[in-house]
């Protein structure tokens, strides 16, 4: 593999994460019938992704996971906090440097049908990034060739002449992944990259993403609402709820012993073919009675999850819990009762 | 060519459900010669029973749902028989369908945001169904609409009834669609991936609601997700490339799948409780597109167990006394069936 350095060369300190977000906050002003309101989509999020690592961000609609992805892709600028790539603050980059940065960080989005230009052939779609960035196809320092890319994602050379509408959903997502890899990026943000696919096809694409990550040494931010999939792919997982990270840690630790009540409910509501025999009924009932997500415009005071948490106390409704280390292994949890919390114990 | 379809023995279904309200026999939806998107669907559904129709994209499950609600495009030809409480659904004119839709058959779609009318309040949309199907008096309809919204778990129903769809969350919109579907007290509710677009905690809520609110109707529940099937279904019909490859009671299908496709579908659902073992199990290849289906067993190309005999099409044959049937020459898990084990021994859930 070519070990191209980051296109935007920073004064990289050894061992520094590839990409790091600190105190990342994004607020939007929205107009409602009650006048102008502030919507805090992402609230003081710290996240770092090392080279060759997969970090998952999970949570439900409106939790800020996609906004976090867009901030890391430098598609939006944070209201507060910083994103650094290779030690350089993205906000301080010149336009030219930002363009170079885009070679290193690439998105794969949910709906490949919307993301691919229907009038282009697959060949043109895959050679477009090189054209846009003025990079030759192939050769040292050049972009990956169409043949290389098709091979990487397991599509035959014959697909080069097809149009997106001639492909199945899974094949389209493979093309979208191939395009993201054209410029040999270091970091790929996958935002619900498999959630529009059938379960069986989902598994194929997840396996492909895992294989590519290992073979090419890529780093991913894997944004998903599907905890069961995340478990197969991510080294670390951050659970978000209404803009806040409520639990974060090594994926295996988080799944073996979720400490935040929200993580416990999320895990309990994953539909399982064998659920009936697994005795998670109590937790499921708790999730069912937990009601609807509050609007991000009306974030609860104190703990953001307190309005839906079966264990919430007066303290939770008054005092916001800090994200703090719980039980070692690098896990942090934002719950006053993280050590003992058991939804439906 | 007419596939041989042997109807599974539904008489053995548990007695907790009522009479058969829907009886579908050899239903076909065709878009021309050799283009049978649905190629012989046979199923029955009793009052209070939820029958899940499961399969990947392109297996014909959505077209089956549209055929049962008279919403197919004009280019489709429907043959076979589908009798709903004495009424033949196949061959009805649009005018004849209108008398049934809402009153005897209603639909719940995946995307409530596009299925609902954005210009009408949700209360008015519920009242509209009642007005068409004979609930007289505006005040009575209004009161009933609020009652229905309350029953599907919409808080402050009297206030929310005046909301427009865009003012509601995805979960609330889906609840409204369920309320609309139930407004005419239908005998049959056809739900096409009704929770696929929802968040998991909301999905759990909507599935629980569907289970509780459809006790008086038969439900055909279309989904690609075996996890959801386990949550909602009493019986399961697995479709592949337009035809039924397996059907049976939920527990039998989940625990002792007979058709290799059913087994593969089950295995491809990531199980958060299972130990991690390398990659996710997948089904290699894909559903053959319409018009490219080979003779014989449609799953042959992707089946790990395919042999020469699979070049002939296997009939849907009864396998267990519990009512399981599979269209496979070499069905799996049949030894258990021969031991005489039935779903009854598992205890009632």
UniProtKB/TrEMBL annotation, chain A:
Span list, region Disordered: 273-294
Molecular function (Gene Ontology), one example: ATP binding
InterPro entries according to UniProt: AAA+_ATPase, ABC_transp_ATP-bind, ABC_transporter-like_ATP-bd, ABC_transporter-like_CS, Oligopep_ABC_C, P-loop_NTPase
Transmembrane segments annotated in the record for this chain: none
Gene3D superfamilies from the UniProt entry: P-loop containing nucleotide triphosphate hydrolases (3.40.50.300)
GO biological process annotation, one example: peptide transport
Domain ABC transporter intervals: 19-267
CDD domains: ABC_NikE_OppD_transporters
A Pfam family the protein falls into: ABC_tran
Family: Belongs to the ABC transporter superfamily.
Name listed for the protein in its UniProt record: ATP-binding cassette domain-containing protein
Organism in which the protein naturally occurs: Streptomyces montanisoli
UniProtKB/TrEMBL annotation, chain B:
Xref: Pfam families: ABC_tran, oligo_HPY
Chief place where the protein resides: membrane
Every ABC transporter domain range: 22-266
Tree of life domain: Bacteria
UniProt keyword Nucleotide-binding present: yes
Record keywords: ATP-binding, Cell membrane, Membrane, Nucleotide-binding, Transport
PROSITE patterns registered for this protein in UniProt: ABC_TRANSPORTER_1, ABC_TRANSPORTER_2
A GO molecular-function annotation: ATP binding
Gene Ontology process terms (BP): peptide transport
Gene Ontology CC annotations of this record: plasma membrane
Membrane topology: Peripheral membrane protein
Key word Membrane present: yes
Location of the protein in the cell: Cell membrane
Family: Belongs to the ABC transporter superfamily.
The protein's name in its UniProt record: ABC transporter ATP-binding protein
């Amino acid at each position: 593999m070519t070990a191209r350095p980051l296109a935007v060369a920073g004064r990289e300190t050894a061992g520094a994460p590839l990409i790091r977000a600190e105190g990342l906050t994004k607020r939007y002003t929205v107009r409602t019938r009650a006048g102008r309101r502030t919507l805090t989509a992402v609230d003081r999020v710290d996240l770092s992704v090392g080279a060759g690592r997969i970090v998952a961000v999970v949570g439900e609609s409106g939790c800020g996971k996609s906004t976090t992805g867009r901030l890391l892709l430098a598609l939006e600028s944070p209201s507060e906090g910083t994103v650094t790539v290779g030690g350089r603050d993205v906000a301080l980059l010149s336009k030219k440097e930002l363009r170079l940065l885009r070679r290193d960080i690439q998105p794969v989005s949910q709906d490949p049908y919307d993301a691919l230009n229907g009038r282009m052939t697959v060949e043109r779609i895959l050679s477009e990034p090189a054209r846009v960035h003025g990079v030759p196809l192939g050769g040292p320092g050049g972009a990956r060739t169409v043949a290389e890319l098709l091979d990487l994602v397991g599509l035959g050379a014959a697909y080069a002449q097809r149009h997106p509408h001639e492909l199945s959903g899974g094949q389209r997502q493979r093309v979208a992944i191939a395009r993201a890899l054209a410029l040999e990026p270091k970091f790929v943000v996958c935002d619900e990259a498999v959630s529009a696919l059938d379960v069986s096809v989902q598994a194929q694409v997840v396996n492909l993403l895992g294989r590519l990550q290992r073979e090419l040494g890529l780093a991913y931010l894997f944004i998903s609402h599907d905890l069961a999939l995340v478990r197969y792919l991510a080294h670390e997982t951050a659970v978000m709820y209404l803009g806040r990270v409520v639990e974060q840690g090594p994926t295996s630790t988080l799944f073996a012993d979720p400490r935040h009540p929200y993580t416990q409910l999320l895990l309990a509501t994953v539909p399982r073919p064998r659920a009936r025999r697994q005795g998670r009924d109590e937790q499921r009932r708790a999730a069912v009675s937990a009601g609807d997500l509050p609007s991000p415009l009306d974030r609860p005071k104190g703990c953001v999850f307190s309005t839906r948490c079966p264990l919430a106390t007066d303290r939770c409704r008054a005092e916001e819990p800090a994200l703090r280390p719980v039980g070692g292994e690098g896990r942090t949890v934002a719950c006053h009762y993280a050590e003992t919390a058991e939804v439906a114990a | 060519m007419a596939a041989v379809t042997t109807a599974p023995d539904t008489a053995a279904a548990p007695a907790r459900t009522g009479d058969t309200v829907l009886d579908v026999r050899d239903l076909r939806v065709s878009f021309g010669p050799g283009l049978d998107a649905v190629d012989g669907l046979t199923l029955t559904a009793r009052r209070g029973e939820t029958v899940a129709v499961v399969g990947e994209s392109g297996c014909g499950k959505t077209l089956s749902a549209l055929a049962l609600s008279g919403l197919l495009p004009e280019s489709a030809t429907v043959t076979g028989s589908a009798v709903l409480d004495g009424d033949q659904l196949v061959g009805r004119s649009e005018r004849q369908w209108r008398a049934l839709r809402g009153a005897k058959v209603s639909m719940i779609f995946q995307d409530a945001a596009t299925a609902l009318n954005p210009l009408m309040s949700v209360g008015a949309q519920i009242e509209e169904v009642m007005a068409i199907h004979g609930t007289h008096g505006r005040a009575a309809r209004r009161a009933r609409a609020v009652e229905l919204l309350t029953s599907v778990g919409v808080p402050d129903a009297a206030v929310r009834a005046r909301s427009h769809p865009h003012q509601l969350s995805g979960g609330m919109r889906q609840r409204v669609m369920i309320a609309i579907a139930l407004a005419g007290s239908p005998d049959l509710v056809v739900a096409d991936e009704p929770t696929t677009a929802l968040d998991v905690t909301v999905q759990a809520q909507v599935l629980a609601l569907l289970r509780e609110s459809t006790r008086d109707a038969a439900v055909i529940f279309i989904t690609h997700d075996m996890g959801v099937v386990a949550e909602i279904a009493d019986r399961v019909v697995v479709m592949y490339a337009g035809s039924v490859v397996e059907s049976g009671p939920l527990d039998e299908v989940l625990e002792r799948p007979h058709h290799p496709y059913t087994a593969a579908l089950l295995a491809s659902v990531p199980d958060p409780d299972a130990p991690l073992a390398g990659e996710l199990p997948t089904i290699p290849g894909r559903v053959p597109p319409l018009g490219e289906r080979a003779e014989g067993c449609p799953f042959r190309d992707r089946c790990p167990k395919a042999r020469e005999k699979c070049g002939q099409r296997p009939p849907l044959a009864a396998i267990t006394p519990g009512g399981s049937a599979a269209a496979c020459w070499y069905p799996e898990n049949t030894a258990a069936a021969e031991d005489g084990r039935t779903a009854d021994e598992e205890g009632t859930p």
